[in-house]
Fold these 2 entries.
Entry 1:
Amino acid sequence: MSPELLLTQALNGLAFAMLLFLVAAGLTLIFGLMDVLNLAHGSFFMLGAYLGLTFVRTLGNFWLALALVPPLVALLGLLVERFLLRRLYGRPGHLDQVLLTLGLLFIMADMVHWQWGAAIQSLHPPPGLDGTTVILGSSFPVYRLFVIGFGLALALVLWLLLDRTRWGAVIRAGVHDRQMVQHLGINIDAVYSGAFAFGCGLAALSGVVGAPIVGLYLGLDAEVLILALIVIVIGGLGSFAGSFLGSLLVGQADTFGRALLPEFSMFLSFGVMALVLLFRPGGLLGRGRL
Amino acid sequence: MSVLLVCAMILAAACGSAGSGTTGGSGASTGNGQAGGGGEETGPTGEPFKVGVLLPYSGVYAALGESMTNAMELYFESIGWQAGGRPIELIKEDTEANPEVGLRRVRKLVEQDEVDILTGVVSSGVLMSIRDYVDEAGVFLISSNAGAVPIATDRKSPYIWLVSYTNAQPPSALGAWWYENVAQEVFLTAPDYQAGYDSTGAFRETFEAAGGRVVGELFPPLGTTDYAPYLTQIREANPASIYAFFAGSDARNFILAYEQYGLKGQIPLAAAGFMFDETTLAAVGEAAVGHYHSMHWAYTLDNPVNRQFVPAYEERFGVKPDLYAVQAYDAAQLIAHILNELDGDISDDEAVRQVILNAQLDSPRGKLRFDPERHAVRQTFYILRVEKVGDDVTNVVVDSVEDWMWPPTE
């Protein structure tokens, strides 16, 4: 494998990793803080992508769509948390939440099918970012470089939010010890709602940004969900740095897997996860307990 | 916890693949011959003739399912939805281009709906999967697209007839021409399923026979949306030319990525027609300019049937017809022809076969006749190049190969 090929595939993998990170970050936040396994998380990604498509078509501007869609989906997430999920807090085990979010997955998938149809659609990158550039002698699409930059910038922003703001402190505390936070008199309900909405908004953001790369098709929700789950298991449930690390690993495994062993690419991602779990059952940066 | 997660993942994986097809997409469309005003004309008096239509209405080939259904309805409308004294009824089922789903749907059509004849089938994978069932059930299947080579050779059936093509015809017609006119080396790529292997294999046969050399091959999974990793690999091999077969959304994604990764204009691309059909050209525009392919129909073909078919289709549906529409139109024609020749009675299998073998169809492609050995039609293949003509991106005929059949018969 030549250095140019290695670099190009690594960049492809990095772009994909950034998309995964945005989805996984929301998923791990919701799980770590609220102990909720949101199986509809991939559906919020898909919804964001399709809404992005519609907004771009009607408004004619990609950036406007990028600005409007995530808050819209975050609002939907807020409503879901407030009126559906909240009823299930305090119930033992995770089965009820799994069933609820699974039901949501089915409903949202059908809604997308009903509204946008079954044909596979594509979204062109915005003008200005739809060209090709040359890196070390090989052509590479500009848009994927944008995705890499955007993802890294957002990762930085998220880290700053978590580390430097009061909100971030509350969330980190909540992830670490939920009951303690409640006993401190903080309005845990508001924190939960906000976190869930934020997570969904992140997933939708990833959907809009990712649509020009992954395409829009039914089944996108499940594919993204599976990869995001693998990412957070590898990274450690509840760990943001872990989801960043996990995304890098899975992004590369998936990209190189598809190039080198097309029939076994999904196997490679699961294989990495199995390997990690073998040595660190709680994930790379997890708390080390099952 | 991990156990729960693993269960969740398995659930999600199962739901993901089933979720897109739960609606099933079955529907029936019927038309009755409309008697003009006074009821003087006699309408069809026989039992409804049920045509089972197996097409993908979702997934990578959804656009094809739609254009093929349009064309069949266009034809049946033009004959008043009746032939051989019987009203014609279409019962549609969504195969999702998935072999397992296709098998379930064909069972439903034959056993539950009791259709009289079957047509459609886009995916060669589906055709291979239903071949045994259709053969045992003894129901005729007029394939209006899928042309898996085994169905024309060692897995032929007296009930399955390809009014479309065999997967080997388009690429083999191009192979020798490509060697003589463009490049002596080629890299092959196609989706990882029956049609992909058939297509690249047939191109390889005539290309190598002419003296060419295949330098590599790569088969991405069917339905891939992101061709970045694959094109990067192919670019690394730096071949003198590339032969590709992709259709539906795969074609669109591949062509766009081909341009984005700098291969357009650097490495000549050859394809078997389906990559540059009218529907795909509408989606990719100028990204396709300069590429070559072979197809058994061209939008600009100048014969009486095409001159009438194209404007009729455009007026009725508002978009250009594509190759798939033409094939479905011909399938509808053949079905009506069978009914007319046998006065609506298709119970005698041998009689039906004789009608098919003697049929000389007037297709927008020109005249078609079936090859008795292959159960597929012999036809002319055009070598086309995509060019920008004014504001329009369209196919221009560069050369042609007549009365072509592959695999060849004696």
Entry 2:
Amino acid sequence: MYDDLIEKYIREVTKDMGVKQRREVAEELKSHILDSADELATQKKVEVNNNIIKEAISKMGPAKKVAEMYPVEETLIDKIIFAAKVVGLFTFIFIIITTTFWTILKVYVKTLELTASLTIGIVITYLILLAIYLIFRFKILSKMHKKLYKD
Amino acid sequence: MNKVIEKFETEVRRGAMQLGIISLLDKEQYGYEIIKNLSKVGLNVEEGTLYPLLRRLEKEGLLSSQWETSGSRPRKYYKTTEYGKKIRKKWLNSFKTINKSIELLEHNMEVQ
């Protein structure tokens, strides 16, 4: 079915878009390609087929070029997902480092035990480091953002 | 040499297309119609590149849009806003000013 050809092109154009924008743009471009294919088919007095669809898509221009021309639109969900990824990655690294450290320490200090106050200490350290990390991360990001989109 | 020409054309065309679009859309039209009507006045465009422009103009408040889903295919109709109409007057003037400068430059250019 030629639907696959259209989907492939649209996926390439919309792959970096937020959920809402992706849905709208996909719908709009699909209608356009089908309209264009109808017209090409009528001109050639044939039914719409794979070749007609390919021709309609080629008239659209390269997917990458079209994708780059779209304005950047971030939705709240995109931001939340991004923040969750950042926090998730930090937590993952923190857990790996603490467990490694703990295991090594346990070898040398036999009396070491995970007491309540030690747990609280680790959690507080985690929160402080997370806060520092986030401040740096987003400061750098917002600077980059300004540089990239200053016009 | 073709690449140089193409790059320049892309840069110039973008402004012209934006002006073309907001001048055209006193009556609402959808993307496919817009491409046809722009090409009638000599503004040809790689079809896919029109849609990002429409979205940009809408985001800037120069166009408004609405979906029409009752026909055979869902279509997004665009229309120039009041704000867009104000802006296009200014854009038109700046294009005319540029045009005059270019003519002057051409006039003074050595004949090749």
